[in-house]
Protein: UPF0434 protein GWI72_18990
Organism: Pannonibacter tanglangensis
Amino acid sequence: MTDDTPRHSERKIDRKMLELLVCPVTKTTLEYDAARQELVSRVAKLAYPIRDGIPIMLADEARKLDD
């Protein structure tokens, strides 16, 4: 029995969905970081995690970016 489910790091995010998402804090565009599985807001200096292919768009769950 084989598992054809993509591993966490191999999951792809729908580009059309990314175009619709904005930072909930600043309402600015986000950058997709495939290596870290995060959506990054350079303006807010926050990185929102993507878990099981689902963006977690909560400021409380976001990682703060260093300057």
